[in-house]
Design brief:
It is a single chain. The chain folds into 3 domains: 134 residues, Fumarate Reductase Iron-sulfur Protein, Chain B, domain 2; 170 residues, 3-Layer(bba) Sandwich (FAD/NAD(P)-binding domain), CATH 3.50.50; 151 residues, FAD/NAD(P)-binding domain. Helix 6 packs antiparallel against helix 8. The chain starts with 21 loop residues before the first helix and ends with a helix. With 477 residues, the chain is an alpha/beta fold. 36% of the residues lie in helices and 17% in strands. It is built from 19 helices and 15 strands. Strand 7, helix 15 and strand 8 form a beta-alpha-beta unit. It binds flavin-adenine dinucleotide and iron/sulfur cluster (2 copies). The site of one iron/sulfur cluster (SF4) has 14 residues, from helix 3, helix 4 and helix 7. One iron/sulfur cluster binds next to helix 6 and helix 8.
Length: 477
């Protein structure tokens, strides 16, 4: 009976796929979690109580049909589970790997609230679509009847790629421009392989190429064309360029050799995983091997840096963060993974200066304490006088987050409207910027956010662009 395959959360305990042992995983860049086998996936999916109002779906930015594909998985109907999961997401196996589920779907599962441990939604989602790839169920991009109109997309991150897939489905000619040599945005060059192996991203990109989407690699808008030139070329444009201006630290010695930006460091490491020649890695500047590494910051980027340094064979890895564990923005799961791998967290500490000879030798820091809550409701850190200390360091990685670049200047488009944070200003209803026919989506509108939100924005903006282009097509006819 189908019913017997569900509601098993009391008798079947929550079990995430096993993590590889910390010592072993710290030696390579492979993902740390094993995959479910079919019996384990069915068993875990069967724990779902099939809520009438599924809070998991409500809190999933894509509003995935979670209980439905869990039921189909529990019943052994994996291909149907895949088709349903794929209906609302362009990259379910990627979200299953890197969404912060504890803050989204799983964090809102009723079984979690009843004390039995959430259904392991992300791991099941990853299992379903990985299986679909292996079984050959993943179909080519469904291309709609040709409309004779073309769309240009600037930025091949999850927002740009998702919009490209949907727009191709509506029948447009789609051109994607990216300044990198490989597509995927932060999926490719930001997020390390131990969270998201690169072939998982590349097979998605290849599928889009096979679907007739044209990729212009190494094409930087602002250098290789102005925004106006691209507007001339296409019937509509999408800006999905993400946010890349690193937040600065103001402290003496911050410009010393050996004090590097997080994304420079992570990109070099990811390029090595692709087998590229990276001179700054080869000459040791961006390689943590044998070094005492201090990473500054408490978000997911900082977590990725510390764990990358461990894998490169650092002599020691410390993470300096000005608030405490409870008040850090990074995922608690990632902190636990980092600690298992040997990272030391130095909470309530902020850098004051960087000592350097030819290159950095130490970080001078001071202890902080948490004061009254600030405008965001988080308790603001303030210096604890007389508590200076010093950490030996031959590589310091700054991971304080990112802001938007100055796009109106870079794109030679002063009339492109921005918010006070530099992100692009869009109309809530149309997702269009201040320029007619120029839309925007993903981090460049939201500020630094999540992959799943970029995918959602890509889906939404494709629909808005389609509405706009249908009207434009009729006027021209
Ligand atoms: P991006 O992914 O940033 O893609 C933008 C693309 O635009 C890039 O390829 C860039 O090369 C291109 N571009 C920029 N300017 C130009 C130009 N002038 N001309 C041509 N091309 C241009 N989110 C999660 O959900 N889970 C995680 O575990 C996670 N980990 C992260 C780890 C790191 C280190 C970082 C930095 C972010 C992480 N995020 C994570 C956040 C997530 O990666 C982003 O929210 C998401 O990638 C945003 O998607 P996007 O498409 O808007 O932009
Ligand atoms: Fe959960 Fe993310 Fe998947 Fe939604 S997309 S179900 S939030 S893992
Ligand atoms: Fe199933 Fe949990 Fe979603 Fe309810 S909230 S439908 S139990 S996964």
């Amino acid at each position: 009976m189908a019913g017997e395959k569900l509601l098993q959360f009391v008798t079947r305990t929550q079990a995430y796929p096993a993590k590889r042992e910390a010592q072993a995983r710290a030696e390579d860049f492979r993902e740390i979690a094993e995959r479910y086998g079919v019996p384990a996936a069915e068993e875990q999916a069967s724990r779902c109580s099939q809520c009438g109002v599924p809070y998991c779906s409500v809190h999933c930015p894509l509003h995935n049909h979670i209980p439905d594909w869990l039921r189909l998985t529990a019943e052994g109907r994996l291909r149907e589970a895949y088709e349903l999961s794929n209906a609302t997401s362009t990259m379910p196996e990627i979200c299953g790997r890197i969404c912060p589920q504890d803050r989204l779907c799983e964090g809102n599962c009723v079984i979690e609230f009843s004390g039995h441990g959430a259904v392991t939604i992300g791991s099941v989602e990853k299992f379903i679509t990985d299986t679909a790839w292996e079984e050959g169920w993943v179909e080519p991009v469904a291309v709609g009847p040709a409309r004779g109109q073309s769309v240009g997309i600037i930025g091949a991150g999850p927002a740009g790629l998702s919009a490209a897939e949907y727009l191709r489905g509506y029948g447009y000619d789609v051109h994607v421009y990216d300044r990198h040599d490989r597509m995927g945005g932060l999926l490719t060059y930001g997020i390390p392989g131990f969270k998201l192996e690169k072939p998982v991203v590349m097979r998605r990109v290849d599928r889009l190429k096979q679907g007739g989407i044209v990729f212009h690699e190494g094409f930087e808008v602002g250098r290789d064309a102005t925004l106006d030139e691209l507007r001339e070329r296409h019937d509509a444009l999408l800006i999905a360029t993400g946010v890349y201006k690193p937040r600065a630290i103001k402290a003496p010695g911050v410009g010393s050799a050996g004090v590097v930006e997080a994304l420079t460091y992570l990109t070099a490491s990811n390029r090595k995983s692709f087998g590229d020649a990276v001179p700054e890695f080869e000459d040791g500047s961006l390689d943590a091997k044998g070094k005492h590494v201090v990473v500054i910051g408490g978000g997911d980027t900082a977590m990725d840096c510390v764990r990358t340094a461990v894998r490169q064979g650092a002599a020691s890895v410390k993470c300096l963060y000005r608030r405490d564990r409870a008040n850090m923005p990074g995922s608690q799961r990632e902190v636990a993974n980092a600690e298992e791998e040997g990272v030391e967290f130095v909470w309530l500490s902020a850098p004051q200066a960087f000592e350097a000879a030819e290159r950095v030798t130490a970080v001078r820091a001071e202890k902080m304490r948490l004061g009254a809550p600030d405008a965001t409701g988080r308790r603001a850190p303030e210096p604890d006088p007389g508590s200076d200390f010093r950490l030996e360091a031959d590589l310091v990685i700054k991971a304080l987050g990112f802001d938007a670049e100055d796009l109106p200047r870079l794109f030679d488009a002063p009339e492109l409207g921005v918010t006070r944070w530099g992100t692009l200003r869009t109309d809530n209803k149309t997702m269009m910027t201040s320029l007619d026919g120029v839309f925007a989506a993903g981090d460049i509108v939201r500020g630094a956010s999540l992959v799943v939100w970029a995918i959602r924005d890509g889906r939404d903006v494709a629909a808005k662009m389609h509405q706009y282009l249908k009207v434009k097509g009729k006027v021209a006819a």
